[in-house]
Please model this.
Amino acid sequence: MPSTVVFSLLAFILGVSAINWVPPFTNVTIFSPPSTYTAPQTSYARTVVIPSDGKDTNVLLATWQNHSPEPPKVYFHIYRSTDLGQSWEPFSNVTDTENNWGLRAQPFLYRMTERIGKFPAGTILCAGNSIPANGSHTQIDLYASMDKGRSWEFVSHVASGGAAIPNNGETPVWEPSIMTVDHRIVVFYSDQRDPAYGQKLAHQSSSDLITWGPVVNDVAKPTYSDRPGMTIIAALPNGQYILTYEYGGAPEADFAVYYRLSKSPLTFNSPASAPGAVIRATTGELPIASPYVTWTPHGGVNGTIIVSASSHQGVFTNTKLAAPGSTWTYVESKAGASYSREVRVLPRNDQILLTGGGPYGGTMNSVTASILQL
Ligand SMILES: *[C@@H]1O[C@H](CO)[C@@H](O)[C@H](O)[C@H]1NC(C)=O
Ligand SMILES: *[C@@H]1O[C@H](CO)[C@@H](O)[C@H](O)[C@H]1NC(C)=O
Ligand SMILES: *[C@@H]1O[C@H](CO)[C@@H](O)[C@H](O)[C@H]1NC(C)=O
Ligand SMILES: *[C@@H]1O[C@H](CO)[C@@H](O)[C@H](O)[C@H]1NC(C)=O
Model:
């Protein structure tokens, strides 16, 4: 009998209503771009878990960046899984209802943990980059779903930037990620608008999701041509936070993955957190480009920090809370490497969901999900 069948039988016999554990799987296809798509690339795969509420099981939603043919304007697909990633169905679309440019790049999904403004706990947020087809503008916009991802409404414009060109001297904004800090929603992103920096990392926060506070730096390097990019932050059990970023201009390798630690997710650019440290496994592997970080309680008193980068199929782990000088271990995975691959802790915290599209500029780019069993 296939393990999934055995598992289903066991779940039935034991009366388990919410699936909490799955037999590990590799490269389950969520979505393959049809030949009508203007480019086969997919990237920036993102998921969110909607926890079991007693009636439904745990639900996963997934989205990613892709190149759907226009019209209609390019949009973010939302696919849904009710079996922790073993199978997926199309569920909804997040479409640009404001700019008539499309939602073209770098989506991020987030489930609200408390009511903020008119948005109750459980609201699903989707931030992404709205860019016209000619690339003349970049606009980080926020959408919300109050029905678990079925329908979406525009919430607010967060940050407005110039042309979608990743060169120093241009002024785009890129790559939002979301957290709740002190009862505010914080959107972190890469920012090329400040003439002092080729690119820096910054955030803005809001107590109602409508009006956004000032731009606050998170990683801004003194050398103009340095390009820190792609903020992802995870909370650690010692009260600290870890921010991973790719560091364009890093001495070890261009876009080597670095991290900073901070007591607050809002103060990563303070002297106590700067300048950040490179991640390198004890066996020599150096992660490069488009990192993602998460933390799981699994793996001992400190739990385990898990970092993915587009250079490697495997992940980089640390069981010492990323303390300065602590060791990183390279852990093999069978999942494909991909550009900005997400690592997410599933309800049974020894299972890590790796969700990714293709490599940068690749030509065979299904969005897939895999389980890394710790
Ligand atoms: C998403 O939008 C496309 C294009 O309009 C449409 O064909 C598709 O049915 C939509 N998907 C869902 C799940 O609504
Ligand atoms: C690019 O597209 C935007 C949005 O449609 C439009 O406002 C702008 O004029 C276009 N720019 C050029 C140079 O075509
Ligand atoms: C937990 O992390 C701290 C801080 O790095 C370290 O001193 C300690 O040895 C770690 N404990 C274990 C069991 O690894
Ligand atoms: C999963 O897909 C990736 C990329 O396509 C490939 O490198 C890897 O070998 C696949 N894993 C398995 C177990 O087939």
